[in-house]
Amino acid sequence: MLRQVLHRGLRTCFSRLGHFIASHPVFFASAPVLISILLGASFSRYQVEESVEHLLAPQHSLAKIERNLVNSLFPVNRSKHRLYSDLQTPGRYGRVIVTSFQKANMLDQHHTDLILKLHAAVTKIQVPRPGFNYTFAHICILNNDKTCIVDDIVHVLEELKNARATNRTNFAITYPITHLKDGRAVQ
Q1: Which GO terms describe its cellular component (predicted)?
Q2: Mean pLDDT in residue range 99-111
């Protein structure tokens, strides 16, 4: 008995719904198209999130809190006189790490000359593009004098090479700050 009542009620409701849809075909043909267009238009404001940290780390994760604490306690010198590669954050910069096969002293004359030759080779790199040749000077970070900022270790190695060339024995590399001949202190 209950089954017959439910069957008759559902049949009547669906019959009326079918009749209503059949009597208003324009609305039921155009409404899904309009809804699809409206929902699809929301993708025009869609932006791809490229930050892996934002995608994978929770907003209030312990790592982010600790990084903010370290950055507040030990601020980084972000002036134009420092290389951005000294920062511990991701970015578009490169760094070359030079090691010795025999675990030799990297400050001896042979290795110092090799490192300075490598530095000279990197600064002479050219990338030919249609209509223009890009050089190291086009992509480096410029200081106030409009010259490329060079890593402090290159200055120390050049000073060490000059000291050896003039038989100066009073040049010492100290940690964490080395004082160069021109009065600058490098870290």
Answers
A1: plasma membrane; synapse
A2: 83
In one-letter notation, the amino acid at residue 162 is: N
Would you tell me how many other CB atoms lie within 10 Å of the CB of residue 105?
11
Q: Which residues contact 78 (CB under 8 A, 6 or more apart)?
A: 84, 87
Going by C-beta distance under 8 Å and a sequence separation of 6 or more, which residues neighbour residue 161? 109, 112, 113, 116
Task: Please tell me the distance from the alpha carbon of residue 109 to that of residue 163, in angstroms, as a whole number.
Answer: 11
Q: Buried (b) or exposed (e) across 55-88, using 16+ Cβ within 10 A?
A: eeeeeeeeeeeeeeeeeeeeeeeeeeebeeeeee
pTM for the model stands at 0.53
Q: Distance between alpha carbon 159 and the CA centroid of its chain, in Å?
A: 33
Q: Is 129 helix (H, G, I), strand (E, B) or coil?
A: strand
Give CA–CA dist 24/173, Å, rounded: 88
183 φ/ψ sector (left φ>0, alpha ψ -120 to 50, else beta): left
d(CA 122, CA 119): 5
In this predicted model, what pLDDT tens digit does every residue of 65-104 receive, in sequence order? 887 887 788 766 555 555 555 555 555 567 778 888 888 8
CA distance 31 to 163: 83
